[in-house]
């Protein structure tokens, strides 16, 4: 496929995943083509024109493979077959072909840390201690008092170990007990996943988003994790322990390198985008590999978790700018299927803040990843019993409502069913209010959708904006401004107060106040509260 020219001066071609914009699709909630209330592959294929119109370079599909849905696809029972409710194998090939015809690459979710308990490997593994696949999973004897082998906790709560009564040993699961963790020390597991990777690449898939790729290897001695201390970040303190021995182990880099070699052996090379939930940029940097021979892109969780505040955001981004290895390329996202949506979480449902956040996200150096609905400023939808679907919401309601709020169906229009499904069909999750929908916003040049599309288009046209360097511009408190490349800048006012910015003059290209697009200004530049724009500088 084509490569764009890198205008950083080096003249080297920039691969598409550096210059482009990615878009996450949560297939269960994108579009329901067969009126069963669940989104499916054909539904996605039917909206390819929209994705091309929006201008995204690639889609990442959350899991579409066979799963009993204990964790909605993230518990895989067959890595090489499509979930029947999602469509057929042919429908997948048609989707890939339809995307490629429109110049859109397709990434799929790859879940190597754990399988479903219904995966034939695990069904066999738990059948006896001498089963063929026993060692493909992590088994350990009970402690002398019968309790779990060590103190590891599941990131979904409770111990990370469940006793298998039949064989008298515990198996390890970092998530639900229905999601047993694989033993990545076992070479047969590695070989089996090599085959799975090749299966999808041979089928034309352009890359993977790799689920929790930072935790695949566990300490071989299963040592206890140390307790959290008051110096740890709040999430670690709340968790109660530091995940030293069940996450971020040094040996996992061998596995990432192995996958990268496979990805690089294809023409064109396939993309590896990792889910890397770590707290600091230095740890994050390691996932690219010291020789840039591991992940191409690694999601930045400190950015997702930062408040929508100029100083906080700038700090996260500048840590990345300084701590990532030379040549490593950041990835930025505001929402995904596990977090509350940025229009709510960052912007508190205030449209002006959501627009400012979008300018930031699409103005950074690094690959932006939009989550379906971000482009229309979609907010969280309050989901309550009995509608909850996420096992975490079901377990923790009302203390924590789980992740359904960000997984509700895409509102394509304001009709009953929202264009997601037929009016008489009950969608798998409530749709919420349809005031913000694609059809209305597509015909409104002042909409968030129009802003998203215009920012994406601008980014695409301008090498400064897609691959140009980041350099901060001195700005008053509450404002974050940065140059991109030689002739562009992004300025965002993260406050309610009108501000002025010195030492910048030029022309506004696209901004939150669409009436100012094209406006020339001299220093000092005036910005209203929560105004943000991309500027061509003099
Ligand atoms: C990742 C997924 C999340 C899933 C978990 C277990 O964090 O994004 O949805 O529940 O892994 O697979």
Sum up the structure in keywords.
3 domains; Immunoglobulin-like; alpha/beta; TIM Barrel; Oligo-1,6-glucosidase, domain 2; 8-stranded parallel sheet; 538 residues; 26% helix; 23 strands; 6-stranded antiparallel sheet; binds alpha-D-glucopyranose
Can you offer a commentary on this structure?
The protein folds into three domains: 22-113 and 189-214 and 248-456, Glycosidases (TIM Barrel, Alpha-Beta Barrel), CATH 3.20.20; 120-172, Alpha-Beta Complex (Oligo-1,6-glucosidase, domain 2), CATH 3.90.400; 469-537, Golgi alpha-mannosidase II (Immunoglobulin-like). The chain contains 17 helices and 23 strands. The protein has helices at 16-19, 41-46, 48-54, 89-101, 120-125, 187-202, 234-239, 252-264, 281-286, 301-305, 310-323, 342-345, 351-361, 391-396, 438-442, 448-461, 463-467, and strands spanning 4-5, 13-14, 22-25, 58-61, 65-66, 78-82, 105-110, 139-140, 161-164, 169-172, 207-210, 271-274, 297-298, 331-333, 367-371, 470-473, 479-484, 488-493, 499-501, 506-511, 520-521, 525-527, 532-537. The strands form six sheets. Strands 13-12-11-7-4-3-15-14 form an eight-stranded parallel β-sheet. Strands 16-17-18-23-20-21 form a six-stranded antiparallel β-sheet. Strands 8-10-9 form a three-stranded antiparallel β-sheet, with no helix packed on it. The longest helix has 16 residues, at 187-202. The radius of gyration is 23 Å and the shape is globular. Bound molecules: alpha-D-glucopyranose. Alpha-D-glucopyranose is lined by residues 71, 74, 111, 175, 211-212, 275, 337-338.
């Amino acid at each position: 496929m084509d490569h764009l020219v890198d205008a950083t001066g080096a003249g080297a071609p920039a691969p598409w995943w550096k210059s482009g914009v990615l878009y996450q699709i949560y297939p269960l909630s994108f579009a329901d083509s067969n009126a069963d209330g669940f989104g499916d592959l054909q539904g996605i294929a039917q909206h390819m024109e929209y994705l091309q119109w929006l201008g995204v370079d690639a889609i990442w599909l959350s899991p579409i493979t066979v799963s009993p849905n204990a964790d909605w696809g993230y518990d895989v029972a067959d890595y090489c077959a499509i979930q029947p409710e999602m469509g057929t194998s042919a429908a997948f090939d048609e989707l890939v072909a339809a995307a490629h015809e429109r110049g859109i690459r397709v990434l799929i979710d790859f879940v190597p840390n754990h399988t479903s308990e219904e995966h034939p490997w695990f069904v066999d593994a738990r059948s006896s201690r001498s089963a063929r696949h026993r060692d493909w999973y992590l088994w350990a004897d009970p402690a002398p008092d019968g309790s779990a082998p060590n103190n590891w906790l599941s990131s979904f709560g409770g111990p990370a170990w469940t006793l298998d009564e039949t064989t008298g040993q515990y198996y390890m699961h970092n998530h639900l007990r229905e999601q047993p963790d694989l033993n990545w020390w076992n070479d047969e597991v590695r070989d089996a996943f090599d085959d799975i990777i090749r299966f999808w690449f041979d089928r034309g898939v352009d890359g993977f988003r790799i689920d929790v790729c930072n935790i695949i290897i566990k300490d071989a001695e299963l040592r206890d994790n140390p307790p959290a201390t008051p110096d740890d970040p709040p999430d670690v303190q709340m968790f109660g322990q530091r995940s030293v021995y069940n996450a971020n182990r040094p040996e996992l880099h061998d596995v990432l390198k192995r996958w990268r070699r496979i990805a690089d052996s294809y023409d064109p090379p396939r993309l590896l985008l990792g889910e890397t939930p770590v707290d600091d940029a230095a740890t994050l940097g390691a996932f690219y590999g010291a020789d840039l021979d591991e992940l191409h892109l690694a999601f930045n969780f400190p950015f997702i978790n930062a408040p929508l505040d100029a100083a906080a955001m700038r700090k996260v981004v500048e840590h990345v700018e300084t701590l990532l290895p030379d040549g490593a390329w950041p990835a930025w996202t505001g929402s995904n299927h596990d977090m509350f949506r940025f229009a709510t979480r960052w912007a508190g449902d205030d449209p002006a803040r959501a627009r400012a956040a979008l300018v930031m996200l699409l103005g950074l150096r690094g690959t932006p990843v939009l989550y379906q609905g971000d482009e229309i400023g979609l907010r969280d939808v309050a989901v309550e019993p009995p509608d909850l679907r996420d096992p975490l919401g079901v377990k923790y309601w009302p203390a924590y409502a789980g992740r359904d709020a960000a997984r509700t169906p895409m509102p394509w229009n304001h009709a009953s069913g929202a264009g997601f499904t037929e009016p008489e069909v009950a969608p798998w999750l409530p749709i919420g209010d349809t005031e913000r929908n694609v059809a209305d916003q597509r015909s409104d040049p002042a909409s968030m959708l129009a802003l998203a599309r215009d920012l994406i288009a601008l980014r695409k046209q301008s090498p400064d904006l897609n691959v140009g360097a980041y350099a901060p511009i001195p700005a008053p408190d509450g404002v974050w401004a940065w140059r991109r490349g030689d002739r562009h800048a992004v300025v965002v006012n993260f406050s309610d107060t009108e501000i002025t910015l010195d030492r910048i003059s030029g022309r506004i290209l696209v901004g939150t106040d669409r009436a100012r697009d094209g406006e020339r200004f001299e220093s000092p530049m005036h910005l209203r509260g929560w105004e943000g724009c991309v500027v061509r500088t003099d």
